[in-house]
Design brief:
Length: 179
């Protein structure tokens, strides 16, 4: 009877590991290993409902590479993935511990940036823009430089809804990317 008990414990452990792995996969974007859109939106909703943001020290950044349509014509899927992954890594490198990032769409990223000082919110965005534009993307047979645009929406006392604040950041992005 001893062996039987051990066996069951191990199986439960294995099931738990499997369950945790499935859970992680459900919440994660496969390519970038960032949160996916749904997970980000859920976490942002929780953050909005529990925090006081009257001081505007949190913001949503919406980030996309510039000229993605042209890139799609020029590059294959694999190279586009390299482009996306490079941007993801740069975004990650510009974030602080408490920040939250996600791959929001094929080419779009979102970040919830929290800072002690409102003026520091722009630093995160500038960090991404500068590092990405300094960056040469190695696509094997060719190298390309890159650029991205960012829209920012700060969370204030009137922020009630995750989807809405993300939409505001995307709207700001569209204006930024037209310039």
């Amino acid at each position: 009877s001893e062996q039987c008990i051990q066996m069951m414990v191990r199986e439960q452990d294995a099931n738990l590991v499997l369950k945790e792995e499935l859970d992680r996969l459900r919440k994660t974007d496969q390519l970038t290993q960032m949160n996916n859109r749904q997970t980000f939106t859920d976490r942002l909703s929780a953050f909005i409902s529990e925090e006081q943001h009257a001081d505007c020290r949190s913001a949503i950044l919406y980030i996309e590479p510039d000229g993605i349509e042209d890139l799609q014509q020029k590059l294959g899927m694999q190279s586009i993935d390299t482009y996306i992954l490079d941007l993801a890594n740069i975004i990650r490198g510009c974030m602080d511990d408490g920040d939250l990032t996600a791959r929001f769409s094929d080419y779009g990223f979102v970040a919830l940036v929290k800072r002690d000082d409102k003026s520091d919110l722009l630093d995160a965005a500038n960090c991404v823009i500068e590092n990405y534009s300094d960056h040469i993307i190695d696509l094997g047979e060719q190298t390309m430089s890159a650029a991205c645009s960012i829209g920012i929406a700060t969370l204030g006392s009137l922020t009630r809804d995750a989807e809405e604040i993300i939409a505001q950041a995307r709207q700001a992005f569209r204006q930024a990317s037209l310039k």
